[in-house]
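dumping this here before i forget
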Amino acid sequence: MTPSLPHYCIDTSSLINWWDEDYTPEVFEGLPDRLADLIKSGRLRSTRAVQDEIKDNDSKLTLAKWCKRHLNFYIEDDAPVQLQVRQIMAKFQSPKKKLGIGGADPFVIARAILNGPNWYVISNENPAAGNAHKNPNIPFVCGQLDVHHIRFLDMLKMEGWKLK
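structure:
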């Protein structure tokens, strides 16, 4: 029996980093098509909360338009996701200190939890060192909740892509 292929729920930081910084479509021309194929196959998704963050951070809206063109890329933040988000926030967010997980981050993690063990969270965040429990980020929370966390480059490697 073949193990199921990995599936990915991608955070805002990785999308913006891909589009504007490290893996821009101008340099890696084939990458948008490969990502589009992952979206079509149902293996790359994000949440509506990420869509909102992208609109707020994409001054030209080019990334926002690319994402929107790919039907089914964004998954609704339905009631089960919202319940899971509340649980994550209760454990990993401190509203009094304005520290901890917030924005779209808990939605991405919640979606991966609900979709099952072959789902990976992709973010551009590095694991925090030292007192990560005082201001937890995506890699820390994923580690605490036994959710796979990888960076964008890790996904490219897992897919075995060689870009020219």
